[in-house]
Structures are given as structure tokens and as C-alpha cells.
Specification:
The chain is α+β, with helices and mostly antiparallel strands. It has two domains: 249 residues, Serine Threonine Protein Phosphatase 5, Tetratricopeptide repeat (Alpha Horseshoe); 108 residues, Immunoglobulins (Immunoglobulin-like, Sandwich). It has 17 helices and eight strands. The strands form two sheets. Strands 2-8-7-4-5 form a five-stranded mixed β-sheet, with no helix packed on it. The chain has a three-stranded antiparallel β-sheet with strand order 1-3-6, with no helix packed on it. A hairpin with a 2-residue loop joins strand 7 and strand 8. Helix 4 crosses helix 6 and helix 13 packs across helix 14. The radius of gyration is 24 Å and the shape is globular. The two termini are 26 Å apart.
Amino acid sequence: MSDAESEAAPALKEIFDARRMRHIATETAAVFPGFDKKRFLSLVLADLDSLSIMQRLRRVAEAFRPTLPADYRQALGVLRELAPRLDNGFVTMALPEYAALYGADDVPASMDALKFFTTFGSSEFAVRHFLQRDLTGTLAVMKRWSTDKNEHVRRLASEGSRPRLPWSFQIKPLMADPSALAPILENLKDDASLYVRRSVANSLNDITKDNPEWALERIEGWPLDSPGTAWIAKHALRSLIKKGNQRALAVMGAGAAAEVELKALKVSPKSIRLGESITLSLALHSTSAKSQRLVVDYGIHYVKKSGGTAVKVFKLKTFTLAPHAMEQLSRSQSIKDFTTRVHYAGRHEVEVFVNGQSCGRTAFTLSK
């Protein structure tokens, strides 16, 4: 999850506010006259303020259990009619959650329902329950999904099987050995949809955290002259590139040591208060008679509560530098607290990396 997403996350639970719960109840009653609207609302609204967004999503699914037909397939039929009537894509994710909670004894109907529901929002969280129960059988279905004509279904094949999907539990067997994902990734490695390619890249980026060599071998065997596949490779290897992994940099054409001089490196202003912004600026001068592919990142050595520091690396620019040419680069960044990062006063060093190698440092001072 990005810093911006983390900052916004506390408000996301309001997607399932009281007004939205009444909307769900009204639309369900419209497609199922026997719906116990009063009971549903009493269940979903109880202690609503104390629940997170994922707890609210599950609460909706749980409240459907005593208010829809007892027969599972009949209940799915009601939810299928309900799906296109809901006014928010994230809200529809409560429908596949119902299948995840109550559909273990009817896997064919459940998987077919997940495929249907994902076209309105996503079934990525729900399908993981089926992966957990039957990894091999569920992946076989998801492999078929990876060739579906609908991009939402293809995306579900890769997103739902991510080893480390955010906001969900990890799929430990796939973290230990991702080889079972190979058929899905192969089918989607040059997908026409950016929506799908982004998911494939995220899945591979997950894999690089536990099995970097497997991910690199997979990507190195792909036709990287294809723009779609090259896009996936670039984004899939982002974590390894930030760590200066030379094999990942080589895939990007930047495996050689950069022949450059770092000039005019500075951060301004030199002293800021929390909530203000810094601007990093620098110039790279080529000392080579050949063109060079350069991957430029920068790391901020954040001061920790203990007084030590921990570096976080950010992307700056990937480009080709002509022989003896000069490239000016700059980036502004706000220094403010997020749910995933609290800042502490002190000297923060800023380090520049070119093709994975440190080229220079500057610093700014943060005061609260």
C-alpha cells in the first residue's frame, strides 16, 4: 500500500457507512421480497463505528446468512441479482465474501459465483479461502480464468493468487514455492489490459520478496522486446531494483556500473518542520563515449525513535543518457506522518543511487 493510500485508509471504512447499509438492504429487498430487511440492518449496524473496513465487509456477508434463503444456491441467485444494483464496486466484494464463508461444500457453484461477482468489483479476497482449502484444485480453475475474455476475470486469476496480497492473509505454500503460479503468469505475461498487467507485476513483485531467483529466471525467459511484457518486468522488479540487485538491473538494461559524475546535489530547504516539503535536485554528467541506460533512485535515511536511522528507497527516473550528456533531475516530497510511518526530529540524510550504486549524499534537518 502506498503512503497516499495509507493516509486515506482510515476513511475507507466509511464506504460501509449507515447510509450504504440501508442502500444494500433496500436493493436486496427489491430482488428478494422475502428479505428480512429489519433484521439485516440490526445486524450490520451494531457497533458499526468500531469496525474496520474489512470487518464491515465481512459483517455484511454474515448478515446475509440468516436473511437470505437457507439453500446456498438460492442465496447465490439473490446475490447475483443484487450485484449490478449496488452503487459501489468495493461494496460488491461482500457478495463473494458470502461464498467464501458459506460455500465450502459447493465449490463448483462458489467458484462460478466468484467469477461472476468479480466483474462488478473483485473476488480477490474471497478466492483466497478456496486456495487455502484446496490449493491445487483452485489454481486449476484460476488457470482457466487467466484465458477468459473478460479482463476482470483474468485479473482475478493473478490478483487472487498473489502470495502476499495486501489486506488479506498470505498464501504460505506459494510463498515457499511459487512454481504452481507459473501457468497463470505465462498466460498473462503480455496481456492486452493494463489492469491485468499491473496485477501480474504485483504478483511477481510479491514473489521477489521470498523467491527472487525464481522471479528473475521467469522474467529473463520472457520476450522483453514486447512493450506489455517489458512493462510487467519493470514494475515486477521494482523492489529488487531499489535494493540494487544487479541481475534485476541487468534485465532493465542497466546492469553495468554507471559512468557518470554526480553534480549539484542538494536538498532545499535545509531545515523543515513536519508537514512541509523538500525538493531534491541533482545533475548527472556522462563520462562515457557510449549511451547508458540509467536507473536513478534516492533513499531517505529516516530517523527512528531510538535515534538510529532506516533507509527507504524511492524511484526517481529511468532513462537513457547520451554520450557526455547532462541530465537535470528533481523531485519534491512531503514529509508528513502516515499510518505506516511516524517521523522523528533530527538530521535525515538523502542518498542517490545510480544503477544500484551509491553516488552521493546530502541532508536536511526535520523539527517537529
